[in-house]
Inverse folding.
């Protein structure tokens, strides 16, 4: 099983409803926008409740994995990123990327979401390179390659594209809107 | 204001008495939509507990001031929290002890009537799930039919009326709930009877219930005549008790009829089901009181809380018994069926003895409403 990175791990094992959510809500207050929390719970009902709670509060429910008796729920704190203006000028839409994926075997596609988001669902050819690690990881990339950048809604990828361009990458393309509306093939946690 | 605790038995009384009750159900929306506590004069509000963590001010104006309010959740914890908050806001409030978990397991014993030759017929109403079990008592002996997995309730009840359980019978292999029959038979030393055609894969010993088998209880002999009535399952068997009651299993309900598809054999069993309902049942005395293994909606309850009606009333009123056209009948029982019960395959495996899930798992498998009828 892939190791899923979280900024915070919350132990809610052995606690009955409503405590897993009460504790999650509290812990969420101390997270920065966009950060990921792993909630460990043993209450079977926590999966449906965490999911519904995330929907009602606008946080992003990434998924749950079962590790023996323990349920590990992954959530990403809402970031309000949908409202930011995009600045990187070269963009393609999801459909155009889907076409490109069909013809270009060697496409370089960076997924700049958090590794936990990537772990639960990503485009098979995408490489995980979370926005926060980009500075350190970009050396692995070739400055003259055509590089597609994708995230959930097109904003983090916009920032990543700007950053790459700033550092001398010449051929960077942002994919909009990104994974939130992706209807093509993906690789999921349990595939 | 203090918080009161209401038990499942208290709520059941309110349903039987058609009392008013306002239920604040704090489970998540999908669980609430799947099943809830229903009573003729119950009203509901669903607000998940996790939307109330910051306070209950937002819902105060939606709560009535002139009737009892019961907060309900899955297992009690969240409803107790919300009840505390509402109590602090000045309301008189109760929460349901044990939550929906306890509700789904509550059995309410009610007496259906006396048997002509002495003895009584009791019905155990599993009010939260719609399962009905029966105890026939005569002269210190008892036979139990379609018992659910809350085995202590039956054993304790028999003790309380001074009866010894000597026979345990299932009308068919259940797919919607876990049978307690085998366990009760083991604990009490009673004989466990099953229809052999439903029991071909079971992993334990049983006595085969076959056409015209008579099971006799008590010295004054109450006969339980078994007769083969396939349709819901291939082995489905009905019982006539004391020439007064027809225990129809999942073949005939009060407002509907059984579905033939839970073992994946809808097309094959349609004609069996029709034969049973339109010929075999027709040949019986229409004065028999039909006692089914399930009720679907709360309006099927009689005023005393029992579920049962005369066969002639059902022949007059039950739509499923009044479809002259065979094709139309076939369509009704094979098309547009409600979703299959939660975990019905696993439940069948458990009832065959092929699986032995822990209690918590059994509970989870049974969650949700009963769906043994065609509509």
């Amino acid at each position: 099983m892939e190791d899923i990175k979280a900024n915070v791990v919350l132990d809610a094992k052995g606690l009955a409803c409503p405590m897993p959510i009460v504790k999650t809500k509290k812990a969420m207050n101390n997270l920065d926008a966009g950060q990921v929390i792993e909630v460990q719970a043993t209450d079977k009902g926590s999966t449906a409740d965490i999911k519904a709670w995330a929907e009602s509060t606008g946080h992003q429910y990434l998924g749950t994995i079962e590790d023996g008796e323990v349920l590990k729920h992954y959530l990403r704190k809402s970031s309000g990123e949908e409202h930011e203006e995009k600045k990187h000028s070269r963009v393609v839409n999801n459909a155009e990327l889907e076409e490109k994926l069909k013809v270009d075997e060697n496409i370089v596609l960076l997924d700049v979401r958090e590794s936990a988001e990537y772990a639960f669902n990503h485009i098979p050819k995408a490489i995980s390179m979370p926005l926060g690690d980009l500075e350190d990881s970009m050396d692995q990339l070739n400055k003259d390659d055509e590089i597609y950048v994708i995230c959930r809604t097109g904003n983090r990828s916009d920032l990543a594209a700007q950053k790459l361009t700033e550092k001398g990458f010449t051929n960077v393309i942002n994919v909009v809107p990104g994974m939130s509306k992706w209807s093509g093939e993906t690789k999921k946690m349990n595939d | 204001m203090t918080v009161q605790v209401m038990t499942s038995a208290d709520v059941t009384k309110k349903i039987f008495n058609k009392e008013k009750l306002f239920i604040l159900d704090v489970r998540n929306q999908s669980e609430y939509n799947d099943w809830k506590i229903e009573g003729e004069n119950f009203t509901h509000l669903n607000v998940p507990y996790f939307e109330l963590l910051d306070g209950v001010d937002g819902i105060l104006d939606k709560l009535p001031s002139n009737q009892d309010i019961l907060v309900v959740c899955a297992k009690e914890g969240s409803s107790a929290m919300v009840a505390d908050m509402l109590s602090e806001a000045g309301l008189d409030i109760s929460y349901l002890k044990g939550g929906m978990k306890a509700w789904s397991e509550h059995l309410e014993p009610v007496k259906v009537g006396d048997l002509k030759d002495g003895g009584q017929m009791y019905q155990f109403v599993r009010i939260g799930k719609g399962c009905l079990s029966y105890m026939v008592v005569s002269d210190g002996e008892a036979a139990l039919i379609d018992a659910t997995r809350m085995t202590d309730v039956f054993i304790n009840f028999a003790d309380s009326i001074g009866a010894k359980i000597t026979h345990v019978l299932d009308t068919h292999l259940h797919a919607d709930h876990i049978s307690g029959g085998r366990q009760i038979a083991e604990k009490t030393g009673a004989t466990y009877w099953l229809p052999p055609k439903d029991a071909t894969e079971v992993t334990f010993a049983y006595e085969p219930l076959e056409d015209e088998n008579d099971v006799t209880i008590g010295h004054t002999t109450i006969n339980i005549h078994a007769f083969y009535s396939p349709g819901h399952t291939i082995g489905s068997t009905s019982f006539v008790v004391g020439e007064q009651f027809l225990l129809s299993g999942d073949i005939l309900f009060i407002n509907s009829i059984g579905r033939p598809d839970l073992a994946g054999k809808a097309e094959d069993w349609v004609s069996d089901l029709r034969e049973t309902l339109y010929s075999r049942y027709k040949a019986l005395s229409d004065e028999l009181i039909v006692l089914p293994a399930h009720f679907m909606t709360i309006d099927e309850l009689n005023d005393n809380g029992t579920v049962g009606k005369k066969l002639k009333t059902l022949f007059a009123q039950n739509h499923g018994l009044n479809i002259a056209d065979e094709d139309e009948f076939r369509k009704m029982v094979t098309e547009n069926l409600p979703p299959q019960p939660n975990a019905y395959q696993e439940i069948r495996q458990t009832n065959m003895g092929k699986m032995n899930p822990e209690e918590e798992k059994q509970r989870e498998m049974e969650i949700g409403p009963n769906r043994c009828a065609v509509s």
